[in-house]
Design goal:
2 domains, Rossmann fold, alpha/beta, binds flavin mononucleotide, eight-stranded mixed sheet, single chain
């Protein structure tokens, strides 16, 4: 029987075979076998049944997500995104643009998704029964991550010149995009115009975030949202669980505050906003109409929540007071206790040979206490206590002094890694006693807390 050695093929044939194999997520040997089968027998139509889902999550379990990966540097993060979605029980079917294949291989995406990767609009195999239409319609959600400036432009214009853009145009499913690009591209009027258009066309957008770019020395708004934030946005869109907080309003504060010393310096703390933002998103997922009052953070606004950005404790209090009355208040922000007494209008200059200027502090307003004793107090007021010592005693004292219904106490000693980290271990301190929760990621703490709030809120209403 004759045998073929790929090594002996001419360079051009080898190159075209290599490209074809990469596109189809096969080895070169598999591609040759496939080509031979294809020419010797009528091509069988592979019914692309969805791959087995991974683990389980109430909102994502069993959901089918068509993940379109476009050609940005953040494409490598979409590999982690596939893993995160699958571990929550979703099936992921990757579609890659030609650009995406310059950054990651279909083999990697296919291996993580446990599915083949679709790349070609004019695939003889897939298009025998108009496969792009099936791909467009078979999913619960079409997710584009990363979404390049070019792809967003194509979506805004309704182009259909490759498989990914054709799917988006032919889809009647909910669409979520995670833009990722250089900050100058992000701020370009053309990009912002296209983004407005896709939003108007009912496309949901998650991110981008502020931060360092892959290009050295560049920073700003444009980094793709982190995979877990994209998962949260997808979860919010797909969540068909009961929404016990429908019709209720909630205010959540989050992040640190920045207290100016002069126009360039400020007093701050290490809060990242991850816990507060996650709580806002989870309350929204249970149906509440949530406004998040956020101090300066680098994480994206949570999905399904309206966000008010502030800098200082006094601005945060003003924003919260304007939002009252509300049904629920969850005060998660790490509000600075003190600010500089008398902010200098000019940058304070260093004077050679002179002692450093004294930093005098003044007390900031107590936002939790103000809300807890407000005339039209929210039905449920939850405070956070970040302590490094006497956690429970301090939380108990706070509960009474601030007029909260319960305090979520967390130990923020440096060795816990809670401040700025992804995990948290909390105790719920209320008049009923202290409930210890195991350590979990901040998203899970937020989900459990939102359920707890819904339960307590309903009990309080009964
Ligand atoms: C190294 C490199 C990095 C790139 N990163 C991005 C990016 O992060 N975001 C973006 O919108 N475009 C980026 N581009 C440009 C896109 O790859 C280009 O617009 C391409 O046509 C996108 O095609 P697609 O959207 O069909 O995948 C990058 C290009 C190169 C060469």
């Amino acid at each position: 029987m004759a045998s073929i050695t790929i090594r002996n093929l001419d360079d051009a044939t080898k190159q075209s075979l290599r490209e074809r194999a990469a596109r189809n997520g096969r080895s070169m040997e598999e591609e040759v076998r496939h080509l031979l089968r294809e020419t010797s027998a009528p091509a069988a139509v592979d019914e692309p049944t969805w791959p087995e889902p991974g683990g389980g999550d109430a909102a994502l379990a069993g959901k089918q997500i068509l993940l379109i990966i476009t050609g940005g540097i953040a494409a490598y993060k979409s590999l982690d995104l596939i893993r995160r979605l699958r571990e929550r029980g979703a099936s992921v079917r990757p579609v890659m643009t030609r650009g995406a294949m310059e950054f990651i291989t279909p083999l990697a995406a296919g291996a993580l998704a446990a599915d083949r990767v679709f790349t070609d609009l004019f695939s003889r195999e897939d298009e025998q029964d108009v496969g792009h239409i099936r791909l467009a319609r078979g999913a619960d959600l079409v997710l584009v991550a990363p979404a390049t400036a070019d792809f967003i432009a194509k979506m805004a214009q309704g182009h259909a010149d490759d498989l990914a853009s054709t799917i988006v145009l032919a889809s009647d499913r909910p669409i979520l995009i995670a833009p990722a690009m250089n900050p100058v591209m992000w701020n370009a009027p053309a990009l912002q115009r296209n983004l407005r258009q896709v939003r108007e066309d009912d496309v949901q957008v998650v991110g981008p975030m502020r931060g360092e770019m892959a290009e050295s020395g560049e920073a700003g708004l444009g980094r793709m949202a982190e995979p877990l934030d994209i998962v949260a946005a997808a979860t919010h869109m797909l969540d068909d669980r009961p929404r016990p907080l429908t019709g209720k309003t909630a205010i959540v504060t989050s992040g640190p505050t920045h207290e100016p010393i002069d126009p360039v310096r400020y007093i701050a703390n290490r809060s990242s906003g991850k816990q507060g933002h996650a709580i806002a998103a989870e309350l929204a997922a249970l149906g509440a109409s949530v406004t998040l009052v956020s101090g300066p953070v680098t994480i994206p606004d949570p999905h399904g929540v309206s966000t008010v950005r502030v800098e200082s404790a006094r601005e945060m209090l003003d924003a919260v007071e304007q939002l009252l009355p509300a049904d629920i208040a969850v005060m998660v922000a790490a509000v600075a206790d003190w600010r500089a007494a008398g902010e200098s209008g000019e940058k304070i200059k260093k004077k050679p040979g002179k002692a450093p200027p004294p930093l005098k502090l003044a007390e900031n307003p107590d936002i939790l206490k103000t809300v807890g004793h407000y005339g039209k107090r929210p039905s449920l007021v939850v405070g956070f206590a970040a302590e490094t010592q006497n956690l429970i005693d301090n939380a108990r004292a706070k509960l009474e002094r601030k007029g909260a219904d319960f305090i979520v106490a967390n130990d923020v000693s440096p060795e816990t890694g809670v401040m700025g980290g992804d995990r948290n271990r909390v105790r719920i301190v209320s008049a009923k006693g202290v409930e210890e929760w195991p350590e979990m990621d901040k998203q899970s703490v937020a989900a459990r807390l939102a359920q707890e709030i819904a339960a307590r809120f309903q009990t309080a209403m009964a």
